[in-house]
Amino acid sequence: MKKERLMKVLLAPHISEKSTTVADANQQFVFKVVPDANKVEIKKAVELMFDVKVDSVQVSNVKGKQKRFGQRNGRRADWKKAYVKLQPGQDLDFMGA
After folding, report:
1. What letters, b where the CB count within 10 A reaches 16 and e where it falls short, cover 40-56?
2. Which pLDDT tens digit goes with each residue over 50-91?
3. Mapping DSSP to helix (H, G, I), strand (E, B) and coil, where does residue 17 land?
4. Which domains does the chain possess?
């Protein structure tokens, strides 16, 4: 895999109450990823960008919600998230300190 592709796979960390609970309990971190990414690409991208060892990756497709914009009905975009479990002794630092 090309390094340029791996740098574009991860879009952002997904911070929510559920992802914080998962991070504390199971040493997992949640990321928004590009819709066409697979588990191998996600694993290599996390290892490249954060210099950690990944144990496993679980992927979930999230359907966009139906919303109203004034009188018009609309729909938010579908997106993909990845639950990345790190090997014991590894940790991610999003602050970079």
Report:
1. ebbbbbbbeebebebee
2. 999 999 999 999 999 999 989 999 999 999 999 999 999 888
3. helix
4. 3-86 (3.30.70.330)
